[in-house]
């Protein structure tokens, strides 16, 4: 196990591994090179990082300069990040999916001097706006074909191939300078600017220090002590997001784990089978899709196969509940579990590579039924909670104590408060040490203070003061409570719907009930200042196509919404059935089926796949009014 007092900055994590855990020639990074998985050692990684440092020192880059990255997860990300950070420069990672306008804003707002570019598509995007980015001096493509792309005549920034940068000679004298700069870094120095998704306005640059990241890694490893230097992580969530950065990249740098990079989301299942990871960070949506496919496959066609599948799930549930209650499952139940494992569970696990210890779910709350499903299979899902502004982890599930529907125990070294939204009175303050298994409280806004809280928003003192109050509490804007000692997320404060009768409705729990239907992929709840709720529904495309034998051309039709009565009734059956699980004021009275999902490209979703409520309600206002008019006519 790593001695945590040996490092306090992001670049020192990896140096500590080479000095105390692994030999330089041992494998650190794994990526697909054409058709072959290629392994890259810790030593080669540090050698390439030093070349990056040396090159940019020659170019006059100094401490606190901002350096951009707009690239998919890859070894090049690590070389560049390690290289700039060890000389004190600041990582500004930009989501590859952002529009030209948003990329231009971030480059200018942060004052990026050089930017690493991962693909021809992104390269074209950047060179198109580069003339409007006066501080941008260097554009660094990682791909060889960049020379074939015509440059604008007025381009001032210099184009430099990343492969050439990696050839930079690192003299003994320069090596000593890099070491001096790295060891001079302070924990309070800014490590990264991460721009928030901006569901409600202009993105803000969150300033996260080396201490924010390192302390977050330390306490998470204390809470999940089973992660060691033998793990292989499969990385597919974007490194431009704080969750993957901390939960995979920084954790692996601290513990000396291997990182394998998935080729794409589409090839993730194939890559899992090839890499056979032991740990993965993921988002609830991925787990929901695995759950839906497993249920569909296991019950398809009915008959004996379906009966065995459902029997196995029931056995798994009984076994899990006995274990979680601290009881011995007994000989008979253990025997049934062994049969269920052989006939059903092992086949599902094999699709993940067969070696998974656990998966870490973050980015949103995981529906309780999905978490329980994986628990029944014997696949452990650890949930975490946090925001970009909290580095990100505030709470995470303990490895040996699962409470489904919650996001875990408060991490060491911070305080989490639950504050009454209206009166601002403190309902409860909990710490890691105050944990009690039976503790519960009322819900309110989740606030936090301690080592995980950001330094502030870059160049935005007013917004910083609004987010962090005079008592150093950061206001998350999330609604939650403590349940069985663990933190439980209810919804976002800004998502709250107040109906015409003054009743508060938090959309997420309601949406999660309806998302139990295998016919529904997404659901967007509407009803603020209205007498009742309605919704836009995105159907599960695969299931709908199979049910109604729909051609691909069906989804290319100009009508944004589907009004086919058979399809509406098909979805309506599940809406009616699931509504019984909700209070009357939480039930959907009418809905429209959207032909295609909400998208980032259309400005309806953030890069972290959160719906932009105000944008959607404004854009589809006519359709919303139509739904309420139809409901009135039906009455």
From TrEMBL:
One of its GO terms (cellular component) is membrane. The keyword Nucleotide-binding applies. CDD domains: VL_LC_FACS_like. One of its GO terms (molecular function) is long-chain fatty acid-CoA ligase activity. SUPFAM superfamilies: Acetyl-CoA synthetase-like (SSF56801). It comes from the Bacteria. Keywords: ATP-binding, Nucleotide-binding. Pfam families: AMP-binding, AMP-binding_C_3. Transmembrane segments: none annotated. The keyword Nucleotide-binding applies. Residues 23-458 form the AMP-dependent synthetase/ligase domain. This is AMP-binding protein. It comes from Pedobacter steynii.
